[in-house]
Amino acid sequence: MFKSKNSSSFSLDWINQIPSSIVIIDTDFKLISASPRWQANFQLDLNAIEGKHFLNLFPEISQDLKARLQYSLDGLRDIKFKYNAKDCQYSSKDSIWHLNPWKDGYGNIIGVVIKVEPISKTQELEIELSKTKLILNQKSAVAKIGSWEFDVQKEELHWTPIVNKIYGLPAAFEPNLDEAIGYYIEESREIIKRVVFEAINSGKPWNEKAQLKREDGTIIWVNTIGRPKFKEGKCIRIIGTIQHLQDEVVQNVEVSNSIKIEYPLFEKVPIGLAIIDLETGVFLNLNQHMLKLTGFEKEYFLNKNYKQFVNAHFSSQSENLTQQLLEKGSFTPIKFTFSNNKKHLLNLKVTGTLVEDSTNVKSVLCTFENITSQFKLEKNLKNTIASAREKNEQLLNFAHMVSHNLKTHATNFSLLLNFLNDETGKIQRNKYMNMLFSASDNLSETIKGLREIVAVKSSINEEKKLLSLNESLFVVEQNVAGLLKETNGKIINEIPETTLVKALPAYLNSILTNCITNSIKYRCDDKKPIIILSIEENKSYTILSVEDNGLGIDLEKYGNELFGLYKTFHRNKESRGIGLYITKNQMDAMNGKITVESKPNEGTTFKFHFNKK
Q: Any idea where the Histidine kinase domain is (predicted)?
């Protein structure tokens, strides 16, 4: 009896009655039992080997076998292992071992069942074929030889992944014959078309050297071989190979050597240098400092067009750079980003100078400077300046808002006191006194609101509150009561009582005050000022519309300056060009916006879009 780790018991008597060659081992690789057939095949006696370490019985193959046994214990099924009899002492016949996990009644893996089957001739050939294919693929990769096949009847072309690499195409690219031939340069293309035609129609094989233009624009030499296959006198397919020849690389090495001779300081200067062919745009050579900067080997760049390594903005300027080189002998510095082999983004500045070697071949000597640290410092400085400018604008905005709002209160007090001084009736005087007390309370509230603005930091959305628009409007009406009485002005309120807007209280009061006082200030001399307030709603905004019958604004003339600081558009001695500037900044701070509709002498409508978020 064998007892598993969970104490479930198993009877192994069945193994003595099966005709198959089977052996069972536990999780410690100890032999538990074996069928009579297995014992006979390997000339082993169960009584002598039971409990022994299974791998010790086959030390010659233990290293390869142990890994497969471990995979089986991990739950993988039907793992195959070829047993070569000549390598071991227990059997004269080769066989295939099938390894499967051995489980208890609860599904726990408690060992491995190995079933041994004699290897057939077919299996032997399949195994050898797989080995041969693996070797051929490995050698093909080293030699850069790819194979292909063209089905003439179906007009279908198939090739191995090596061909994709030779063409510089992605692995997922599916070729056709026309596209494949189209990558050859014009002269070679005509040769390939001719040999394919002769192969199909005359059965003539080919072995040609040709020039291929890769996807990246690099031109390489290849050797292409094709063999037509006929059936019943008709060509049904062509099989062949294509090999990337190394001639061009050798030539480029020679160019590199000549460059080193002509530019002896190429490797000595402490900056990145590269030489690029003027006509083709391919890299001819790079110094060690450049390679260290990018983290790549030289082969990563050689014979490849520089456009592969720069962004689209840089590539789009290639014609302009070439023109500068031809006219001035150099091009002005240009900045671009480059991802090194560690995927870190570098900010580089490149300059180029036209050079000519002893054979009158023109190329471009480029210098590359790593400005990543400088770029970060500049970016931080710009952010700091922008932040400082924004804070200064906010401070100026606050100062103007204080001045503007307090001036409104001061004007209101002055008017009410004048009315009180001129009034002799007790009832009317009491009425003006109540208005003064109300104005005083409102002044206190304004000052309190201004203190709240000082406390506002950066999270304006967190400080916004849902406010009743009518309640805010009532406070503003009290503040401008003197102006309304003096001008016989009238406010028509069409805002529903339930209307709420998300705003900062002090900002909302300031916006309403500025808008209403402007409507009164810029009234027509022959009209009593009338101000109509109404509401629109959409998905994103609650829109307050403030319409008046005043002087209006020539938007075609002043539209771009409407919200500028100290910009005035009417001859009014009280105009200081502050109110609209403040209002615009307040709406922006609350993620809102303002729109204006106006015509001269026909009044103005301001629409305040209060963001609902």
A: 401-613
